[in-house]
Amino acid sequence: MLEEKIDYNAPLESEEKIYELIIEDLKFAETNLPVLYTEAPFGRNGINIAVSEGAAKAALSYVYMCMAGWPLNKGNDYYKLAAEKAEEVIDATDKHTYYYKLLDEYKQVHSIAYNYNNPEVLLGIYYNRDRTPNSIPLTDIPQDVIQNGWGDTNGEIKFWKEFPEGPRKDATYMPKIILADGKLHDWWDDPSNQREVVAPIFMKTVESATRGQDFNYEDPTALPANGEKTIQVIRLSQVYCWFAEATARQGQVTPKAVEMLNRVRNRADGEKTNRYSTSLSADELAEAAYNEHGWEMAGYYWAGFACRARDMFRMYRFKDHFEYRKNNPEIDVAEGVKRKEKVSVTGTWDDSKMYAPYPYEDAILNPNL
């Protein structure tokens, strides 16, 4: 729909028309929003609470990335636009026009200490457990773990296996879990062979029962359903990845693109490894940036703006992953231990699987859906 009116026979509009509306709004936003809000409730603790110029520019960059990929497949020209817009954010940050900066350690990114004053967050949704809580602390915790989670989501084994070891991975997945026997286990343990889901467990959104403290996986205390962790819609490290990928997808390998990716990976490694260099081919740099963004955002799908699934969508990689999940091979997760996904995938691929189905309540009202 392109207009805000009730029409039960409204035709389906093209994705390109929807993107045009998004671009129009974001261009207006980047021109008319301030760099920094200085008064509550729009700004607090020296950071922006409301959408700012920098957030609008960053959002534009990723939208251009999406338009360059599937299904519009606009390609090189839009990768160029994406790189240019990301570079505007990077340059303004490096010149201190924007206050944004990477936190020193990845474990700080989703910590309680930086919940309300995270300089890496360009756009966040803020909560208060007493008045306006979120409802996400239990979603990633399995039901059979002693802290009593909801088991809504779980990590994929292959992705966990390929995730580079280091501080970023340590801060992304629970190191151990407590099962009903009260003992610490590796996620792949299944003592009774009756666990419904055996999979890596993310812990970015988990909150401690004790307010003001970070979650401790060794504490068996039941966790709160209501939380106040900020939902981080856009972070600076993502912009670095987008710039590197969009540059490389144009067939270019530049020192600046490599530097941005190394900023992300050096923090992830916990030391200045500088793993990437200008000796990479453009395809290699593009894939490295794509992967780094996936690892930065691993297990974080809240707001849904630029999560791993969205990256896979724009690169048309759901189909290959669908076939992989159908095959569901066993994976070595520890010495002498193999695991495969307990959630099966069946059926035959078609591109309708790229999308969620229309809500039934809407489909019965509009025959065009």
UniProtKB/TrEMBL annotation:
<feature type="domain" description="RagB/SusD">
    <location>
        <begin position="225"/>
        <end position="369"/>
    </location>
</feature>
<keyword id="KW-0732">Signal</keyword>
<dbReference type="InterPro" id="IPR011990">
    <property type="entry name" value="TPR-like_helical_dom_sf"/>
</dbReference>
<keyword id="KW-0472">Membrane</keyword>
<dbReference type="GO" id="GO:0009279">
    <property type="term" value="C:cell outer membrane"/>
</dbReference>
<dbReference type="Pfam" id="PF07980">
    <property type="entry name" value="SusD_RagB"/>
</dbReference>
<dbReference type="InterPro" id="IPR012944">
    <property type="entry name" value="SusD_RagB_dom"/>
</dbReference>
<protein>
    <submittedName>
        <fullName>Protein containing RagB/SusD domain protein</fullName>
    </submittedName>
</protein>
<keyword id="KW-0998">Cell outer membrane</keyword>
